[in-house]
Amino acid sequence: MRITRFSDIGLRVLIYLAGTGQRQGLATVGEISRQFDIPINHLVKVVARMAHAGWIQAVRGRNGGLSLASDAKTLRIGAVLRELEGDAELVDCAGMDCALSNDCMLRGALAAGLRAFYQAMDRYTLADLVKGSVGEQIIVMHRRFAQEALQT
């Protein structure tokens, strides 16, 4: 299984916002775009979806930016991926004219694997992903970006 680029970007945004925290100030779409080399138009779509889900808060305007609106200690990665990935099956057996469809076990096996994946991801919270050196690295990245912005 492979997650989509959309979900990958979403997880990176959440990790970055959880790592910067409220005390570091708001992060901007431009900042996150530069930090992770993500095209702004892709990032805006992901941010809008996550704001709609209530995970982040987006403040418009000159002093605006993004902040985490959910508690990183309770936001489960499995829940995030379910929302961003959707609940589509890994194969679309109904859309195919397959000679094996009456006796095939593949669909059930893949569904069980997908459930196991989400259950494994549910064991992790956003806070788990920003513990230790990852969180420290994000703070350094955010501060460096803020300093560079002041100099230009």
Automatic annotation (TrEMBL):
Organism superkingdom: Bacteria
Alphabetical keyword list: DNA-binding
Gene3D superfamilies, sorted: Winged helix-like DNA-binding domain superfamily/Winged helix DNA-binding domain (1.10.10.10)
Organism: Noviherbaspirillum pedocola
The protein's name: Rrf2 family transcriptional regulator
NCBIfam families assigned to the protein according to its UniProt record, in alphabetical order: rrf2_super
Record SUPFAM superfamilies: Winged helix' DNA-binding domain
Molecular function terms, GO-annotated: DNA binding; DNA-binding transcription factor activity
Gene Ontology cellular component annotations, sorted alphabetically: cytosol
UniProt-listed InterPro entries: Tscrpt_reg_Rrf2, WH-like_DNA-bd_sf, WH_DNA-bd_sf
